[in-house]
Specification:
Blueprint lengths: L4 H19 L3 H9 L7 H10 L4 H11 L10 H4 L4 H7 L7
Length: 99
């Protein structure tokens, strides 16, 4: 059975949130870090963009770079990673990066 696009969006949103949690970075902090790369956005816009889960791969990679993510763990089970509370579970999984 094909996985719905909404599940993919939720998974990516949860991966981004998990990486923010791992590093203790708020949306305001992410806005500041993105600003260091010349990407101007504010806390409210970031919160809304991530909450919707509809953003480009470029934005996702900009966030990963700004957060200092070197290795990204992609969950095997999309539906599981898309569930409510999945960001917290993903954040608790051991990271392969040297933070």
């Amino acid at each position: 059975m094909p996985i719905e696009e909404k599940a993919w969006e939720e998974m990516v949103k949860n991966i981004l949130r998990a990486e923010m949690m791992r590093r203790g970075v708020s949306y305001a902090g992410l806005a500041d870090r993105l600003g260091e790369y010349g990407i101007e956005d504010n806390e409210l816009n970031l919160r809304n963009k991530v909450s919707r889960g509809r953003f480009t791969a470029v934005f996702f990679m900009q966030c990963m770079q700004a957060l200092g993510v070197e290795f990204l763990q992609i969950p095997h089970a999309v539906e599981e990673a898309a569930k409510k509370g999945a960001a917290q579970k993903l954040a608790r999984k051991p990271s392969q990066s040297n933070e």
